[in-house]
Design a protein that fits this description.
The chain is an alpha+beta fold and 134 residues long. It has helices at residues 12-23, 40-50, 77-86; strands at 4-7, 29-32, 95-98, 101-104, 121-123, 129-131. It has a 4-stranded mixed beta sheet. The chain has a two-stranded antiparallel ribbon with strand order 5-6. The protein starts with a strand and ends with a strand. The relative contact order is 0.23.
Length: 134
C-alpha cells in the first residue's frame, strides 16, 4: 500500500499523524508541502478526492489569511486555490492519501480509518491516548 502525507514537521497534529502511519507498519512518502507545494492540478485533485470545498482546506492561524482578505464569502474557488499556491502555509495539514481514501487528518486519529493495520492504541506527543474502536 502506498501512503502519502502532506506534512509540516512544525505541526504537532502532522507529527502525530506521521507517527501513527509509521506505527501501523507503513513508511509513507512524506511531502513537506511548505518546501515542495503541490501543483495546481495536484491540489485540485486532493481537494476533489477529499470531497471538500477549497475553503475547507484553508488554514487561518499563523497565515496571511486575514491580510489577504480570504474571509470574504464571495471569493471563488480559483482565487482560494491561487492563494494556497502562492502561500502554501494556507493549506491545512496534514493531508493523507492511501488506497482507502484521501482525508484531512485533523484530528490526527482520522488517519486510522485510512490504514490497513492501524494500531489499537497510540500515545500522542501531548500524552493523549487514542484508542481505536473496531
Amino acid at each position: 500500500m502506498t501512503v502519502t502525507i502532506y506534512h509540516n514537521p512544525a505541526c504537532g497534529t502532522s507529527r502525530n499523524t506521521l507517527a501513527m502511519i509509521r506505527a501501523s507498519g507503513e513508511e509513507p512518502v512524506v511531502v513537506e508541502y511548505l518546501d515542495h507545494p503541490p501543483s495546481r492540478e495536484r491540489l485540485v485533485a486532493l481537494i476533489a478526492a477529499m470531497g471538500i470545498a477549497p475553503r475547507d482546506l484553508l488554514r487561518r492561524k499563523g497565515t496571511p489569511y486575514d491580510d489577504l482578505g480570504l474571509d470574504e464569502s464571495g471569493l471563488g474557488d480559483d482565487i482560494l486555490i491561487d492563494a494556497m499556491l502562492a502561500h502554501p502555509i494556507l493549506i491545512e495539514r496534514p493531508i493523507v492519501e492511501t488506497p482507502k481514501g484521501t482525508r484531512l487528518c485533523r484530528p490526527s486519529e482520522v488517519v486510522l480509518d485510512l490504514l490497513d493495520h492501524p494500531m489499537a492504541e497510540f500515545t500522542k506527543e501531548d500524552g493523549g491516548v487514542v484508542r481505536r474502536t473496531p
